Amino acid sequence: MDEFSFIHSIQPRTYRQSSLIKGISDDAAVFRQTSQDIVTAVDTMVEDVHFSKKTMSPYHVGYRVLAANLSDLAAMGSTPAYYLVSLVVPPHWSEEELQELYTGMMSLAAEYRMDLIGGDTVSGKELCVSITVIGFAAKGKARYRRHAREGDIVFTTGTLGDSRAGLECLLKEKPNEFLISRHRTPDPRVHFAQRLERVSRVCLNDISDGIASESNEIAEEAGVDLYLDFSKLPYTKVIEELFPDDYEDWVLSGGEDFELIGTVGKKDWPFVQAAAAEENVTVTEVGWCEPAKKATGQVYLYQYNQRRLLEKSGYIHLQEDRDEDD
């Protein structure tokens, strides 16, 4: 199948968003939005870096890369609306596999009434999937990392370390349907974040690289110190049973759970708890914020009756290449 035939095969026949004026089939898409702020994000996944055919079907690849983008929109308090897909397609990916990849994306997009409005397809040596998402937020209601303040409660949604444990289950052929599904089909916390619109100030950050990295991003941007209590960090007990030597590291740095870490004033904490209950999402108080001791905010972890500096950890893109050059 040539590029144009493939584009025609995945082109939507109907659209869901009323703000869309022109979708696929022109040089660019057109939508009109005057009453809300526009939020956009892009995420890219590369075969044998972010996923492998050994552990992910094409359906799961498509689902997961869109979920990663939706998690970014959730962190901004945004309602998803549109997405664009760019593919680098290698010879070893068949037409049927590419169709399945789009099916994974479209199944998740349908849950949020998202419309596919464009993209690009080129040939290359390895599959590369890049998705750009566009969402809307009420004017002045986009959520920023700098919104964290001293005295805030620090909280997280869901459980941490599940995705990394799910990957290990797949690699070591340990049957655990829950953990594997958490790795392959994560549930971005979009609806929970939307319900926080009633809260005047809340900081949110997507947990894609692990809470150690994401908490530091908040501390640096907001200029506050975050204090986390490991005993309060939520995780599925089965990962401790299956991987007793690794689970603590995965809770902090496993990444790709696509949960949210946030901070909020104590008076608004009940609203956060109510929003979580309305969406059947668990939310856990895991720490607090204090004035920064240094010019840049830092993160401290209490564990085993000791306090230590918690630095960014986990996979950092391009870091390995830099290390090799040093």
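the 2nd protein, sequnce then structure:
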Amino acid sequence: MLTALLIATAIGGATPGHHPHAHTHAGGEIDEMQGPILLEATYTGEVMSVLDGGLRRGERYLDNLDIVLEADLEAVAGWRGAELHVYGLYNNGKSISDLIGDAQGASNIETGKRKLRLYEAWIDQKIGKHVSIRAGRYDLNSEFDSLDASGLFVGSAHGIGTDISQTGLNGPSIFPATSLAARLEIRPAKGWALRSAVLDGAPGIGGDHGALLIGEAEAPLFGGRILLGHWRYTARFDDHGGGRRRGNGGVYLRGEAPIASGSIGDLAGFFRIGTASGRINMFDRFASAGLKLTGGWAEEDELGIAFASAFTAEDYRTAFGGGKAETAIELSYRTPIAGWLNLQPNIQYVRNPGADPTIGDALVLGMRFEASFRLVD
């Protein structure tokens, strides 16, 4: 079955719109599956070139294979209100950031390691109409700190804020390394949600390294939504002064809303601001914003521009030197060529890569394609 699925992925299928690690695809509500079992595979390939600046000029080919299985366990096994989600992931390990020297990550499919891994495996149990519990191997960014409008962009900072993604011994439980977790979500009314989770504090690293605790409130606003979150690790971490301390935590505020709709398409905007402990982390503040136009030339075309800025902590600059910020600006256009194939040219300008004044501003050109196949039974 798997062999047939991969062949079908290469030659055609259905359902465009899968964006690696934008966290809005399979893994959502079970009533969107259109059947008790969903099997989906997506191959993403990307050529990125540093045209000027950075550490050195050059090209990289990155790729990513996602295989997702979801099942409505009530329909399949009589387990009322339960959903199964299993997600396998393969990456080739090439790195465009090795050429750019950036800290935020110009590509959201870069891992730095060639590896086939179990990315997610969880069960979601609904309790009544408004409560659900999810447990297992879990991607934090699949539900927390996640927007639809920013999912167009290939820069990693538009998936989850750099203030969170930089933290922990091996990052939080996000792409590409995830951990065991338990999540509680309450949806008291339409558009409103309260969610909290407890996650292993060091994904992919053995031993006891404490936990990551996170809570988020979601509310409707101006036809869109706004998110307010707080996160904190329980473990101690090395600080910039050579000591050990607790208090590795932060907050974020994030929102998206429609701006205009007409013959030129639908325009939406989004923003995000966040903080992290400056005594422990390289960056203590983060800001991003952008615009996305949908349906400008064809119904499913997407055109967007966005920026993401990460600001170094004063304690970090005192200890290690360096500049005050790294800023990445991205212009991206995504269009379906066929029902199973999407192309996405993009260009990025990275100012002060790595917040290192010795590295020149980088101009990066990319071309991404996605081939998808979905089987619903």
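The two ends are 13 Å apart (CA to CA). The chain is about 10% helix and 50% strand.
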